[in-house]
Amino acid sequence: MPTVTLDMSIEEIKSLVFQLPAQELLTLVDELDEQAETIAMMQLAESGFAEWHEEGENIYDAKA
Q1: Which residue, 8, 17, 38, 50, shows the most beta carbons closer than 10 Å to its own?
Q2: How far apart are CA 39 and CA 52, in angstroms?
Q3: How many CB atoms are closer than 10 A to CB 44?
Q4: 19-60 pLDDT tens trace
Q5: What is the DSSP string of 3-46?
């Protein structure tokens, strides 16, 4: 699928979003909330793997 890039400001996006019917706006808010929660959880998970990047922690790369 081709990627489309738009050059829009946050204000322009808000203006378009606020034109949505109420039900579609609520659906969008739910989806945005879910996406934001996923991103936050992924950022938290990244910190748990930071030790794998430390020198001397290459035991995971060892070949049998």
Answers
A1: 17
A2: 21
A3: 9
A4: 999 999 999 999 999 999 999 998 888 877 766 666 666 666
A5: -------HHHHHHHHTTS-HHHHHHHHHHHHHHHHHHHHHHHHH
The full length of the chain comes to 64
Tokens (6 digits) for 28? 């969008």
Is residue 10 pLDDT above 60, yes or no? yes
- Which CA distances in Å does 39 have to 46, 50, 51? 11, 17, 21
**Cα angle for residues 33, 36, 38 (degrees, 5° grid):** 110
